[in-house]
Design goal:
62 residues, mainly alpha, 2 helices
Length: 62
């Protein structure tokens, strides 16, 4: 009886883990996209700093 319950719980846990994996992959893709955007934004700010010697103001940036 105990062994049967443990087996059922393990099967349920495995199915839940499989269901969670696509979301983890989607989250990973979102994190990668945010990292790319952050990197490109930082590069643009640094280009502006190199050209003008100061960071851009909000009006210049938008």
């Amino acid at each position: 009886m105990e062994k049967e319950k443990a087996l059922q719980a393990n099967v349920k846990l495995n199915s839940l883990q499989r269901k969670a994996q696509p979301k983890d992959k989607e989250l990973s893709n979102i994190k990668l996209e945010v990292a790319k955007l952050t990197y490109s934004t930082d590069r643009e700010i640094n280009k502006f700093k190199d050209k003008f010697g100061r960071p851009p103001t909000l009006g210049q940036w938008c």
